[in-house]
Amino acid sequence: MATDKVIVTNVSALRAKYGDKFTRVKAAIKALIEADAGRELVTKLVAIDSQTDMARVGGRAVASPGDQEGAKAAVDAIYTHDRPDYIMLLGARDVVPHIHLTNPMLDEDDEEDPDVPSDAPYACEAAFSRRPQDFLGATRVVGRLPDLTGANEPSYLVKVLATAAKFVCRDPKDYSTHFALTARVWRRSTRKSAIKLFGADAEVFSAPPHGPRWTTEQLAPRIHFINCHGNTVSPNFFGEFPKGTFSTAHSARLLPTKVTKGSVIAAECCYGAELYAPSTAHGQMGICNTYLGEGAYGFFGSTTIAYGPSTGQGQADLMCQFFVASVLDGASLGRATLEARQLFVSRYSHTDPSDLKTAVQFLLLGDPSVHPVKAEPHAFSGSKVVKRAVKSGLLQPQAREFRRERLVRTGTNLIRTVGAAVPAKTRLPAATRRFLMRAVNESGIRRPMFKSFRVRFPSTARMPEMANVRTDRSDRWIHMAIGSRKAKGEGSESAVTAIIVTMERRQIVHVRRVHSR
Amino acid sequence: MVLEGNVVRKRINIGSKSEHNSVVLVTTDGEFKLRVQGGHPFSDPGVDKLVGQRIRGEGFMSAGQFIMERYEVLRG
Q1: A43, A32 in Cβ contact below 8 A?
Q2: Whole-model pTM?
Q3: Cα A153 to Cα A147: distance, rounded to the nearest angstrom
Q4: pLDDT in tens, A187-196
Q5: CA atoms within 13 A on the CB side of A360
Q6: CB contact at 8 A, A268 and A362
Q7: Which residues does chain A have within 8 Å of residue B21's beta carbon, measured at their own beta carbons?
Q8: Nearest CA of chain A to the CA of B45: how many Å?
Q9: CA A96 vs CA A71, A170, A255, A480: distances in Å
């Protein structure tokens, strides 16, 4: 019998965390597997620390809970052997590790994240590496149902497993309202996102003045879209206004009892999906963990510092929009995550460093097989003749198989065709440097830093048809000047601006000016 | 872990969604955004008052930030 869903975990890590109480976790996993069976989903558990389990799928057991290379190889072996439609990583980062990828934005002076903890590699065919550009072609439906990092009591994990087991696929009208929240300085951008997702009348709360004491009624909608500041090891999201003044917009401490069961959250916030140990924040778990513990089905967010343009739409805005749109369209949470990754990457000929980081930093916390919203079936599928054919076995619908085929094809095409900008040490051409300096002066950028990147395309991107395209991908460079800018009418600390120049054959072919949020 | 260094103010995360002025601990091993456990991560008066001081802090690192559980201001 084919396996539809695999729960991937490290049993010895869970036993080490929960001791004798692991039996409660075991029972909760069994209940989820039984509930899945009731939904005609064949689910099995694979312990990546078990020699027996891993030998059965032709793989090797991980050396320790932190063995990233081993965990990636184990998931690859499981996927190759079972070809499941859903992969659910069970546990926080101290059970099944994130894969720590090189941070393409890393700069000693201005970026904190030393690397990018990611689950994207688990969704990709590419073998283990630290290079984010290897994981632009996601093909697998993956999500992570986390416990609490560093926990020694399993109630939280038992609760989120029970939420997954008892999930209800609801009518679209149950997801027809939303809670949208933005840092006030980003309200224009967030409003654009909200209008695209929820229509012209979409309400968006700005912080300040709103938050963090939301009423149950305000939080009642099952779709939450949040575009605020976040930080590592912080149980709060923050608003901003005026620029440089931060106020608490959303607080994990104030969420309990106010979350509607079945909620789905997309958070653009930096570190929104960081699974920090509550013990490092005086016992307070993060907002993402709190939502799930309160009965939310899924939380889509970033493990690290996220990016977005000052006005218009880009990066984190797009990822979160694509995810929510797919959920509302009836996709499973896992498929919505995969489609968001694919749609985001497919927008580019090549990904610049911030796009590249965005593509790998967002992940799903929640059971990937959960379908929050019912997809609207075609009228013909409800006809008597079709129903009769299904009942007799003449017709065996394979809609999910077709969708997976499409997703594998799309992801495979992406990894074979999309280029990525990788940091390069090169001498900035004199004319380009002069242009950048003039643009820097005109834009009022102070203390600019210069960075260079080479755009690399995979060898498989050399298709005959590309000869008809007038761009030259073999000699494409990106040069960037970035610094803070003092704007009229604002305080001494204002927007940061980056001038980004794309060059081909030593010719400037594209320029843009990007403002920070 | 224990880190010792000078506390200065500078702009960090330039170009990101969370670009802001921050207090940074400059040590011989590098520069780290400085926070006090449980404090406001973007503007904490308890950290601001350390600017210009030399301190020895005990805490942990997270995403390149040094989050202090306790510290002492070094004189001289």
Answers
A1: yes
A2: 0.92
A3: 10
A4: 999 999 999 9
A5: 31
A6: no
A7: 244, 493
A8: 13
A9: 7, 31, 27, 37
